[in-house]
Amino acid sequence: MTTTDERDLLLGVLARQRAALRGALSGLTEEQARSVPSASSMSLAALLKHVVRGEEQALALLTGDPGDADPDPVAGWLSGWQVSGDETVATLLARQHAVAERMAAQIRVESDLTRQPVIPAAVAQWFDEGVHDVRWVLLHQIEEQARHAGHADVIRESIDGAQAAQLTGS
Predict the structure, then answer these.
(1) Most buried residue among 29, 44, 82, 168 by CB atoms closer than 10 A?
(2) 169 pLDDT above the threshold of 70
(3) Cβ atoms < 10 Å from Cβ of 145
(4) Global pTM exceeds 0.85
(5) How far apart are CA 81 and CA 69, in angstroms?
């Protein structure tokens, strides 16, 4: 991958982490994606919903548009792990793709990665103290995607023995 600037580099790393999670879901049935085969209570579908919802919320912070933000962040976080009957892996992957496109577009138009978006107090309490600028929001998304892509590897291997290298071709 050729990068031309910091934005391209960060967006590329974020895209690879999203792809790792998608890879863990490749070839599974809906039932397998919703199964909880390991000691964790997480399913691959729930992980996908969680990271998509998190990226949607991060994008809302960057754009200043809270959208359908939950007035209770704790309840919102908990519901982000619950996959409803009408949320299929395909619909969640479509949401992932859509938010990825919107995030990339937003980052590319940011004139200054040190701009500090307004973070509501109810959300800010979840973050460590420090500067929470556009760069931090993007790096936090990379961190979240990477953490959960690792979880996805373990869950997928528990389902059918497939490992990340087999699923991504690396």
Answers:
(1) 44
(2) no
(3) 24
(4) yes
(5) 16
**What is the spatial distance between Cα 148 and Cα 168, in angstroms, rounded to a whole number?**
16
Helix axes 134-160, 44-63, angle to 10 degrees: 170
Q: What is the pLDDT of residues 88-135, one digit of tens each?
A: 999 999 999 999 999 999 999 999 999 998 877 767 677 777 778 999
pLDDT in tens, 11-66: 999 999 999 999 999 999 999 999 999 888 899 999 999 999 999 989 998 998 87
In sequence order, the 6+-apart residues with CB closer than 8 A to the CB of 5 are none
Domains of the chain: 6-168 (1.20.120.450)
Q: Report the alpha-carbon distance of residue 113 to residue 136 in Å, rounded.
A: 8
Q: Which token pair is 78?
A: 């908990």
Count CB neighbours of 50 within 10 A: 20
Q: What is the DSSP string of the chain?
A: ---SSHHHHHHHHHHHHHHHHHHHHTT--HHHHH---SSSS--HHHHHHHHHHHHHHHHHHHHT--TT--SSHHHHHHHTTPPPTT--HHHHHHHHHHHHHHHHHHHHH-S-TT------HHHHTTSPSS---HHHHHHHHHHHHHHHHHHHHHHHHHHH---HHHHHT-
